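Before any further analysis, we paired sequence with structure tokens, yielding the entry below:
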Amino acid sequence: MIADKVKIYIDAGHGIHTAGKRSPDGLLREGVWNRKAARLLVARLEDSAIPVTWINDYDTDDPLWYRCRKINELASEWPYGYQNCLALSVHCNAHLDNRWTDAHGWEVFTYTYASPLSTEAAVLMSSEALSAGLTVRRTYPDRYYKTANYAMVRDTICPAILVENAFMTNRADCEMLLSDEGTEKLVDVMYRGLKDYCQLYGR
């Protein structure tokens, strides 16, 4: 067993039919990929005996406030307290929707005024991305994570991070997202980042 103190909550961003959330050629839908990745990630966490709940294991796109409230309600019920939970929102990136662009790479976000534990989770996740050879996008040369006012990292009571796994508007990134090998690589980064966090803050 890796951890019985930290509880992970997985949020798969967007629904499978959410307008605009797809590659320029229509071959990749973000909501579909996010759910595929979440399914693989949850299975790996369960195999490692890491407590995990996938909050939106269905195809519809619930409002952000609803998903945040769901995490908050579940985290409030966790016997060890919400501070011993971690929320991860799974996404694909895009730049100039409906056009192929040169923007590419992997990103992890915390809230602009993130808690120390949220920041630690982002640092651990970005370290695994770097180890996997991914291009980690960043705002500052010495900081491999970004901050933003995103609802999923702002309105959750527990530590939270949001991962943009690659750009569906970049041909090479999109090819990686569409391949089983590429998906497994990105899922492995998320799994290892969460595992690292649990090993540090679990029992």
User: Anything to note?
Assistant: The chain has six helices and six strands. The domain at 7-201 is CATH 3.40.630.40 (Aminopeptidase). Residues 180-201 form the longest helix (22 residues).
